[in-house]
Specification:
The complex is a heterodimer of chains A (112) and B (114).
Chain A lengths: L3 E4 L2 E4 L5 E7 L5 E7 L5 E8 L2 E4 L7 E4 L7 E4 L8 E8 L7 E2 L3 E5 L1
Parallel strand pairs in A: 2-11
Antiparallel strand pairs in A: 1-3, 3-8, 4-5, 4-9, 5-6, 7-8, 9-10, 9-11
Chain B lengths: L2 E3 L4 E5 L4 E3 L2 E3 L5 E7 L5 E7 L5 E3 L5 E5 L4 E6 L8 E8 L8 E2 L3 E6 L1
The chains are: A mainly beta (112), B mainly beta (114).
């Protein structure tokens, strides 16, 4: 069984659209994250979500909003997509804020 | 804020040769340190981690890393590389109880020559 899963694996969409990426973890972890990997493969934290507390990286545009329906899920909603949003988005989870993070397979987003 | 430097963008190694990938970090206290590997088109797989204790840590796939506080380094090593080790390697630092997630280096691309 996959520990951290993401859907879809690939997402191609037009500028201005709204899209969502889903993330689920079956590890029983309390903390989940979203990272963005740019075209140069640089990884940067976007959000962390722990015990219903959301920590936002201040550089993330407010077009991005994480939603957690329960502890096992942290979905990423993106409004008004822009060309610069094209990237690979990784979900991760850890037992707590100090724990080892386990990553999902990534969602490759291409905005045309 | 913490930072991670991987000074080598690309490294080419012959199959069967030894490997060392460099990682330096900047953080005021003792950090948590990680090495992840990313194969083309794949996600990130944890190779090994250092939280505390023995400064030489063993990981999967025959990798090891040594934490050297005096040099602020956490270099990754493997005595004999295999063609399947060709991938992107990321060093990362985490903070105890920190909500800022992991801070990653820019990665080292490992090429294996036959």
């Amino acid at each position: 069984d996959t520990a951290v899963s993401q859907t879809p694996k690939y997402l191609v969409t037009q500028m201005g659209n709204d899209k969502s990426i889903k993330c689920e973890q079956n590890l029983g972890h309390d903390t989940m994250y979203w990272y963005k990997q740019d075209s140069k493969k640089f990884l940067k934290i976007m959000f962390s979500y722990n015990n219903k507390e959301l920590i936002i990286n201040e550089t993330v545009p407010n077009r991005f909003s994480p939603k957690s329906p329960d502890k096992a899920h942290l979905n990423l909603h993106i409004n008004s997509l822009e060309l610069g949003d094209s990237a690979v988005y990784f979900c991760a989870s850890s037992q707590d804020l100090s724990g080892t993070q386990y990553f999902g397979p990534g969602t490759r987003l291409l905005v045309l | 804020a913490q930072s991670v430097t991987q000074p080598d963008i690309h490294i080419t190694v012959s199959e069967g040769a030894s490997l060392e990938l460099r990682c330096n970090y900047s953080y005021g206290a003792t950090p948590y340190l990680f090495w992840y590997v990313q194969s083309p088109g794949q996600g990130l797989q944890l190779l090994l981690k250092y939280f505390s204790g023995d400064t030489l840590v063993q990981g999967i796939k025959g990798f090891e890393a040594e934490f050297k506080r005096s040099q602020s380094s956490f270099n990754l090593r493997k005595p004999s590389v295999h063609w399947s080790d060709a991938a992107e390697y990321f060093c990362a630092v985490g903070v105890r109880g920190g909500a800022d997630g992991l801070t990653f280096g820019k990665g080292t691309h490992l090429i294996i020559q036959p």
